[in-house]
C-alpha cells in the first residue's frame, strides 16, 4: 500500500451539481464506456425530538480514511470490470439538501456498474473513519451513526 | 513507553482534546482502554474502536505505540 | 392506465451533462432525500469487423414506449419507497461518447435506490420498444440488439 | 377486415414503409404473419414481435384490428 499513490478524496464543503455535471462531461471522450452509475449522498433535514437537522459537520481521520478509500478503490477494480471510478467526500459543513458524497463508476457494460457501485458505497459506510455532527436549527447537535 | 493518541468526533468531545501523549506501561489495547477509562470516566458510555497504524485493532492487539486513534462510530456518506 | 397522465420520456438528440447537473440541483430543496442513484447510458464506439460505430440513431414506437415507461414508473413506485424518479431517453442521432439514457431515483435511504435503479434500467432494456441503428464511420449501419 | 400495420427499425427497412393498410381475412396473429411473409419474403429472416393495442401479442392472439405493429428487437438505453 505504501508504494501506491493515495489520492485525497476529501473536498471542503458541499459537492456542487456543477462539479458533478463536469465530471460526467469529462467522460464523453472515453468512448469504450457504455454505462455510468452515480451515487449521491444528500444531507437530510431529519426531525429528531421536534428539532430539525440543518447541516452536518464532517470530520475524518483523514490519513486513515484516504488509505481506506484507496483500498476500496483497489478492491473494486479487482472485483469488477470498471473503466473508471471516482469518489469524493465532503469535510466541514454541508447544509441539508446539499451533497456530501459522490461516487461515480463507469464500465463498457451495465450489469457490472450496479454491483460495483453498491459494493463501494457499502464499504465507504462501513470502513471509512468519517464522523458527522448533526447540527440542529437551535445550534444543539447530535452525532450521526451509519445504519 | 510514551504514546500519542488521536481523538475524533464525540470522543474528542469527552477528552476535550484532539491529541495527547501519555505514558503507557501495559502491553495490550485492552489495558490502554482501562487506563483511558480511569482518566476519562465518561468514555465508558461511549462506543468507539481503537486503530493502530491506521488499521482497526482488537482488545488483544499489542500496542506498538504508532498512530493510535480512538474512533467513534463511522458516519460517512 | 388511460386515466393517468402519461409523460413523454423522449428528448431529441443527446442528453447533456448540463441537463443532468440541473436535474440534480433541482433536488436540493427536497430535504427528505438522503440518497440519489443515477444511471447513464452512453453510446460506445464499438469496433465491429474493423468498422467503428460513430453514432446511434434512435427511433421508437413512441406511444407504446411512453406507456411502457409509465408502467415501469408505476411498478417502481409500488415496489420501492422512492421520493422521486425521472427517466429521459434520446430519439434521433446520439454520437459515440454522448448520453442516450438518464434514469434518476431518489429516496430517504440508500439501500432502496440501488435495487430500484437496476429494476428500472433492466425493465427499460427488456420492455420498451426503442430501436437503435448503429451508424459506422463509413455510413454503413447495423441494428443494435439489447443483451 | 381492413387493418393498419406499423413497421419499425429494420422491419421498416424490409417493408420499405412505416405504415400500411391491408385487407386481412384471417383471425390470428399467426395468420397475419403468414400473409406478411408472402408479401415480404425477407421478413422470414428477421426477428420481430407483434404488438396490438400497444401490448405484445402471441401467435394465438386474435386480431382485433387496432394498433398493430411489427417490432424488431429492442435496443433502448
Fold blueprint:
The complex is a heterotetramer, with two copies of chain A (147 residues) and two copies of chain B (77 residues).
Chain A: E1 10-12, H1 17-26, E2 35-42, E3 47-48, E4 51-60, H2 62-79, E5 84-95, E6 99-107, H3 110-127, E7 130-136, E8 141-143
Parallel strand pairs in A: 1-5
Antiparallel strand pairs in A: 2-6, 3-4, 4-5, 4-7, 5-6, 7-8
Helix pairs in contact in A: 2-3
Chain B: E1 2-7, H1 9-15, E2 19-23, H2 29-39, E3 49-52, E4 55-56, E5 68-71
Parallel strand pairs in B: 1-5
Antiparallel strand pairs in B: 1-2, 3-4, 3-5
Question: Any overview of this molecule?
Answer:
The complex is a heterotetramer, with two copies of chain A (147 residues) and two copies of chain B (77 residues). Chain A is of the alpha+beta class and 147 residues long. The longest helix of chain A is centred in the middle third of the chain and has 18 residues. Chain A is globular, with a radius of gyration of 16 Å. By secondary structure, chain B is an alpha+beta fold. Helices cover 23% and strands 27% of the residues of chain B. Chain B contains two helices and five strands, in the order E-H-E-H-E-E-E. A five-stranded mixed sheet of chain B has the order 2-1-5-3-4. In chain B, a hairpin with a 2-residue loop joins strand 3 and strand 4. The model of chain B has no long low-confidence stretch (mean pLDDT 96). The interface between C and D is medium-sized, with 28 and 14 residues. Strand 2 of chain A pairs antiparallel with strand 2 of chain C, so a sheet runs across the interface.
Amino acid at each position: 500500500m505504501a508504494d501506491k499513490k493515495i489520492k485525497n478524496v476529501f473536498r471542503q464543503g458541499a459537492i456542487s451539481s456543477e462539479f458533478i455535471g463536469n465530471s460526467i462531461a469529462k467522460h464523453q471522450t472515453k468512448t469504450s464506456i457504455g454505462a455510468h452509475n452515480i451515487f449521491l449522498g444528500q444531507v437530510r433535514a431529519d426531525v429528531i425530538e421536534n428539532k430539525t437537522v440543518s447541516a452536518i459537520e464532517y470530520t475524518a481521520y483523514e490519513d486513515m480514511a484516504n488509505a481506506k478509500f484507496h483500498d476500496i478503490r483497489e478492491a473494486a477494480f479487482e472485483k469488477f470490470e470498471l473503466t473508471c471510478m471516482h469518489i469524493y467526500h465532503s469535510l466541514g459543513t454541508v447544509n441539508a439538501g446539499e451533497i456530501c458524497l459522490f461516487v461515480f463508476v463507469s464500465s463498457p457494460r451495465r450489469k457490472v456498474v450496479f454491483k460495483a457501485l453498491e459494493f463501494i458505497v457499502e464499504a465507504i459506510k462501513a470502513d471509512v473513519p468519517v464522523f458527522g455532527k448533526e447540527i440542529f436549527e437551535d445550534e444543539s447537535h447530535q452525532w450521526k451513526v451509519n445504519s | 513507553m510514551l504514546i500519542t493518541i488521536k481523538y475524533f468526533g464525540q470522543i474528542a468531545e469527552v477528552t476535550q482534546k484532539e491529541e495527547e501523549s501519555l505514558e503507557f506501561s501495559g502491553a495490550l489495547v485492552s489495558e490502554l482502554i482501562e487506563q483511558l477509562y480511569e482518566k476519562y470516566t465518561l468514555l465508558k458510555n461511549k462506543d468507539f474502536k481503537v486503530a493502530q497504524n491506521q488499521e482497526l485493532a482488537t482488545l488483544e492487539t499489542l500496542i506498538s505505540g504508532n498512530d493510535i486513534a480512538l474512533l467513534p462510530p463511522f458516519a460517512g456518506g
